[in-house]
Design brief:
Largest sheet: 4 strands, antiparallel
Radius of gyration: 27 Å
Number of strands: 25
Distance between the termini: 30 Å
Length: 439
């Protein structure tokens, strides 16, 4: 029933306030994740007086829909009192927040169905635009403000739980990264003061350098490393396997919305790890035709073309049993020390090394041959240092995996709440039956 659907244009107005006095400095941009985030644009020499001012609970959206991965870039300002956005965005506000709750409206914009609607209503040749007039004609259910607030409250309980779990995960990852840096970059791995570099099994170990551990200058690495350490590369700690290509690579017609084997593309591996919001699949027959690139549990995935350096971990907690990578990624495999490998690949040390080994002009890439050329210090195998580090970070990563599983369930609940918005019924006044009988 669409009887309670209302035209959005009756509830919103354009805001076109410019930063003429340069009183606002916080520059934000709208991401396809539908959040306003600090802009990374180079604004040196840019006339910031033309930028638009956006205030809390106001919206900004970019009308171009043909380059956004089927999503429209739209967001509400909820973390700042005011900011500025590019003049390319349309800024708008709700006329009367007692009639339409801003957070309720943003929930509607987050629905995949709204993205599909915006793409369908877009027009243009060189690039497709979902213009302001089309936005005004958008229809949505608008129940009483009390009902809107109830829906928003329910949604925010789930959203806040997701944020809390993400913050806990970030703290756990920072702990693992701090320990990695302490041991393998600062060389303060634990030793006995009397007999370093043997590892300490007792209490109160000292760091290697603090305990006076001997260092030696290594010309290849152009820095000092502990005595007994070697110059290593990725082949020293794992096997490397890329995705299939050439005649075996699936064609566009082979990709399905659902199927036997998940086929990872660039969008599935982000800076935050795996993202399974936009999946493509291949059949069992196509999967069996491919020769390589099949994931095993505890594999680490590294993107090597386009956006290079994103890392994801294929844990036991992921629901997908059959997964392959495309030719823009590689698998790093060593199940014996998988968490050490994953922590190392996410470290600032490896990020800098990867950047230094990028090739390609039009599109950055990191071929396997270049991955093998990346060199770094490694402890002597006899010390067991890598295995001990792996055993320490394993409980941390298990907690992260559990939190990620919880986050996926909460995201599914969020999607369910958004889908229910289309079925919000118009509230009707309860009429006293006695009154009807008497009249």
């Amino acid at each position: 029933m669409r009887s309670n659907y209302k035209r959005l244009g009756d509830y919103v107005d354009v805001v076109n306030k410019r930063n003429k006095k340069l009183e606002v400095e916080t520059l934000l941009g709208v991401s396809i994740r539908k959040v306003l985030m600090p802009s990374i644009a180079n604004t040196i020499g840019t006339n910031m007086t033309t930028y638009k001012i956006i205030k809390r609970n106001q919206f900004a959206y970019g009308p171009v829909t043909s380059r956004n991965g089927e999503k429209i870039s739209i967001a509400i300002l909820d973390e700042y009192d005011e900011a500025i956005v590019s003049q390319a965005y349309t800024v708008f506000k709700i006329k009367d927040e007692k009639a339409l709750n801003p957070e309720y409206l943003m929930m509607w914009f987050r629905r995949p169905e709204f993205d599909r609607y915006a793409r369908y209503k877009s027009h243009g040749s060189a690039r497709e635009i979902f213009d302001w007039n089309e936005m005004l004609e958008t229809e949505l259910p608008i129940p009483s403000i009390e009902k809107q607030q109830e829906i928003v409250k329910e949604y925010n309980v789930v959203k806040n739980r997701i944020v809390l779990n993400e913050q806990l995960n970030q703290n756990l990852e920072e702990t693992a990264q701090a320990l990695y840096k302490h041991w393998f970059v600062d060389f303060e791995f634990p030793v006995c003061k009397e007999s370093h570099p043997k590892l300490v099994s007792g209490s109160q170990p000292l760091g290697y350098k603090t305990a006076g551990g001997k260092m030696v200058f290594n010309e290849k690495l152009d820095k000092e490393i502990p005595v007994g350490w070697i110059v290593g590369n990725m082949e020293k700690i794992c096997s490397i396997e890329d995705g299939d290509r050439g005649k075996n690579y699936p064609k566009t017609a082979d990709f399905l919305d659902d199927g036997y084997c998940l086929f990872l593309n660039a969008g599935n591996v982000t800076k935050l790890g795996f993202d399974f919001s936009n999946n493509i699949y291949v059949t069992k027959e196509r999967d069996e035709f491919l020769r390589k690139g099949k994931l095993k549990r505890k594999d680490v995935v590294l993107t090597t073309r386009g956006t290079v350096g994103n890392i994801a971990y294929y844990s036991d907690k992921l629901d997908f049993e059959n997964v392959r990578i495309n030719s823009g990624m590689v698998i790093l495999r060593n199940p014996e020390v998988s968490y050490f490998l994953y922590t190392k690949m996410k470290s600032a040390e490896m990020r800098d090394l990867i950047i230094n080994h990028l090739s390609g002009s039009a599109q950055p890439q990191l071929p396997i041959t270049d991955i093998k050329r990346i060199e770094f210090p490694l402890p002597n195998k006899q010390t067991g240092l890598i295995e001990i580090f792996n055993s320490i970070v394993t409980p941390l990563q298990n907690l992260i995996d559990d939190k990620n599983l919880h986050i996926r369930y909460l995201n599914q609940l969020q999607d369910l709440l958004l889908s229910k918005m289309a079925r919000v019924k118009e509230e009707k006044k309860i009429v006293n039956k006695q009154f009807l009988l008497c009249n």
